Amino acid sequence: STQSRSSAASDVYKRQILVNLKAEKLARNIVLRTNQNMKLEGQGIGNEKINKTIKELADEIKREMRKSLWD
Predict the structure, then answer these.
(1) CB atoms < 10 A from the CB of 13, how many?
(2) CA-atom Rg of the chain in angstroms
(3) Phi, psi dihedral angles at 30 (to 5 degrees)
(4) pLDDT tens digit sequence for 15-49
(5) What dihedral do alpha carbons 54, 58, 34, 25 form, nearest 10°?
(6) Burial class (CB within 10 angstroms; exposed 0-12, middle 13-18, buried 19+) of 64
(7) Quick check: helix, strand or coil at residue 43?
(8) What is the pLDDT of residue 48?
């Protein structure tokens, strides 16, 4: 029925949002921890680069997660 398809689509959408949030949180933790260590060595990076790196890592985490579903 239309209602069950709509409900299923809503569930998929909610899962995608959850995956995006979890991937970004994990990526942010990794990048900020790494940057903190780099700062201690005088090699920290700026906020713009940090944000770009977080986005790239989050995208990679999501890609790898999808692959691992099929392994």
Answers:
(1) 10
(2) 17
(3) -65, -50
(4) 889 989 999 999 999 999 999 988 888 888 899 99
(5) 90
(6) exposed
(7) coil
(8) 94
Tokens of 13: 């959408």
Q: Residue 28 corresponds to which amino acid?
A: R
State yes or no: pLDDT of 6 exceeds 90: no
The DSSP call for residue 8 is H
- Token match 């949030």: residue? 21
DSSP state of 45: -
Query: Whole-angstrom Cα distance, residue 30 to residue 27?
Result: 5
The tokens describing 15, both together, are: 């899962």
Between CA 60 and CA 31 the distance in angstroms is: 13
